[in-house]
Structure formats: C-alpha cells, structure tokens
Design a protein that fits this description.
Layout lengths: L22 H9 E8 L2 E4 L4 H10 L4 E7 L3 H11 L3 H8 L6 E5 L2 E12 L4 E11 L3 E7 L6 H8 L2 H4 L3 H14 L1 H21 L4 H35 L4 H81 L14 H22 L4
Parallel strand pairs: 3-7
Antiparallel strand pairs: 1-2, 1-3, 4-5, 5-6, 6-7
Helix pairs in contact: 3-4, 5-7, 7-10, 8-9, 8-10, 9-10, 10-11
Length: 368
C-alpha cells in the first residue's frame, strides 16, 4: 500500500516519490473501506488510495469505479467532488449524518440518502445507520455513517453476477437498496417478538414495562422515518429509470424492492399503533390496580375505624364507674353522702345506670 499524503493526485507532480506515512495518510486508508474498478461486469483492480483510483479510471474510461468510505474526512470528500464533479450541496450533506432519506438529482449524478437498521439481540433494541450514495455515469460512491449496512456482502454478490454488474452504477444502486430493505426484515421480526413479550409483561403486572413500551415506541418513530420516505423515493427512482431507458430487468428488480419497502412500512405503522394500544391498556390496568389498592386501603381504614369506635365505646363505659369511684376515693372529711348508710349502694347503682345508659346509646349508634 502506498504511503502518500492525502492530497488529490493532480496537485502533485506525477514523478513525486512516496513519502513517509503520516497520521493523515493512515486516516485516509482507514476511511476508504474499499475502492474497486470494474469493466464489463468484471473486477479489474482494487486501488489502495483515492488518487490511484482516479488515475486508473482515467486510463480506462469504459470502466466503473465503486468507492466505499466510512466516516470520510473533509479532504477526501472534496477530492471526490473535484474528480467526479459532485454538487457542493450533496457533498455538504454527505459530511454530516442525521439526514432524512431522500433522492436528489444533480445533472447526471444521483444523490441518495438511506437509513439502514439492524436489530441487536443482546440489548433488544434497534440500531440505525446512515448511508449516502453518489451515482454517476461511471462511478458509485458510498459514504457510510454507522455500522449498518454491511456493503461487503453486496459487493461479493455483485461480483458473482457479472451480467447484473455490467448494467452499471444503477445496478449497484439497486443491490444496495435491496440489501438495506432486506436488512429491515430481521428488525421487523425482532420488534414483533418484543411486542409479544411486552403484552405478556403488561398483563403480568410488570412495573418496568411502561419504560420498555416508551423506548420501543421511540425506536419505531425512527424506523418509520427510515422506511416511509423510501416508498416515494423508489417510485421516483423507477420513473427515472423508465425515463432514462434503464434495463427493463433492473426496473423489475426495483419494483420488487418497492413492494418490500411498502410491506415493511405498513408493518412499522402497525407496530406504532399496536404500541399505542398497549400503552393505553397498560395505563388502564395500572389505574385499575391503583383503584384496587385504594379500595383495599379504604376498606382497611373503615375496619380500623370500626375497631376504634368499639375501643372508644368501651373506654367511655368503663370511664363512668372509674369517675364515681375516684371522686369517692378522695381523702376529704366533709363530702356529701360520705357518712350516709345508703351511700355505697347508691354509688354502685349510679355506676350501673351510667354504664348501661352509655352501652344502650353506643349500641343504637352501631358502635358496639
């Protein structure tokens, strides 16, 4: 692999000898995932640098360059823009991630933004990646932000089918679209499994299920943003293929991808609605559980209040004789009825009358 500084080849004399590798040069080699040249559907070479790719493509004008980059530097994108006459707005979009899926034409160059997705089994969550594609008459450039999608499988598939690859950059674009859309299928299956688990957790009374519903709903919003624009994009792309006389077989392949995208988009819409319904059911069940708990607390409070009434009633009944006995138990010489012969029977009778009267009153009030 040549150790050269990451500057466009035409800015240096052709005979300039290689220099010692720099961190910038190493960064270029890391950014360029793979660059390959093809002629008549056959792999010709895999240049090590962008400059070498440009040189070989000039030497073989009937060939096609397929350049794959991952999180490229600004210098790399500017060199690509200068070599292939890419529009500055498209280059600016490719430098930044977080673009919505879209299809734009700048002269004879197409600029496509895709959102890929993959399901992570361990975390039970959906991870999204972003892919920017430049499609020209004799080149295709992919700029990847994120781990998904894996384009190496697409490259191997196309190299095994020279007849399809010979159709040019449009065929490669179809293969990439097909790979991205096929990558949605495991995500759909994983989300369906998550929703089934969530339904079980909701009716099982799991208190943590509300958070899981919310997080999955947010992922479905992102998934919907990735899939819904693709429907219109693919129809616009099919119209362009028909306008520019693209191979009929390739148009049929693209229609098949469009059907899969439509199906996936409908499933995602269904997932969002299902999650909204599950969230409503969960809120209803939580409310019912809270009402049951409040009712149980109220019943417990009522029972406790009844016990307090009984205790208070008996305390009042026992307080009456205690009061009389306490008064006559005081050590004073001059007290009414203190030396009266009928004082004791009178005190006992008074205690009995007061206790009986209190018992009857409390009984009528259902306190006893």
């Amino acid at each position: 692999m040549s150790d050269r500084r990451p500057r466009p080849a035409w800015r240096r004399p052709p005979a300039e000898p290689p220099t010692t590798a720099t961190p910038e040069a190493s960064e270029e080699r890391r950014s360029v995932v793979q660059a390959s040249l093809y002629r008549d559907g056959r792999h010709v070479s895999s240049p090590a640098t962008l400059a070498e790719t440009f040189r070989q493509l000039r030497e073989h004008p009937d060939g096609m360059a397929w350049i794959g980059l991952q999180r490229p530097t600004e210098e790399e994108l500017h060199s690509l823009a200068a070599e292939f006459d890419l529009h500055e707005l498209a280059v600016e979009d490719a430098m930044e991630a977080h673009q919505r899926p879209k299809l734009e034409r700048y002269g004879d160059t197409l600029f496509v933004v895709l959102r890929a997705a993959r399901y992570l089994d361990a975390q039970e969550e959906v991870e999204f990646g972003e892919l920017h594609i430049f499609v020209g008459p004799d080149f295709l450039i992919t700029v990847r932000h994120g781990a998904a999608p894996d384009l190496s499988t697409v490259r191997r598939r196309m190299e095994k089918d020279p007849e399809l690859l010979a159709l040019g950059p449009e065929a490669v674009l179809y293969a990439i679209l097909d790979a991205v859309v096929d990558g949605y299928a495991p995500v759909v299956a994983g989300v369906q499994n998550d929703i089934d688990e969530i339904e079980t957790e909701v009716f099982g009374g799991d208190p943590a299920v509300s958070r899981r519903i919310y997080e999955l709903s947010r992922e479905m919003v992102e998934f919907q943003r990735a899939t819904r624009p693709l429907v219109g994009m693919l129809h616009a792309l099919m119209a362009g293929f028909a306008k520019y006389g693209t191979d009929e077989e390739l148009q049929r392949y693209l229609r098949d991808v469009a059907d899969h995208v439509t199906h996936t988009s409908e499933r995602v819409d269904g997932f969002r609605q299902a999650l909204a319904d599950i969230l409503t059911v969960n809120a209803t069940l939580v409310t019912q559980q809270q009402n049951a708990e409040m009712r149980a607390l109220a019943e417990a409070g009522f029972e406790q209040n009844e016990e307090i009434k009984k205790i208070s009633s008996w305390a009042a009944i026992l307080f009456a004789p205690t009061l009389v006995g306490t008064i006559y138990g005081m050590n004073f010489d001059h007290m009414p009825e203190l030396h009266w012969a009928g004082g004791y029977p009178f005190a006992v009778l008074l205690m009995a009358v007061v206790c009986t009267s209190l018992y009857v009153v409390f009984k009528k009030k259902d306190w006893l």
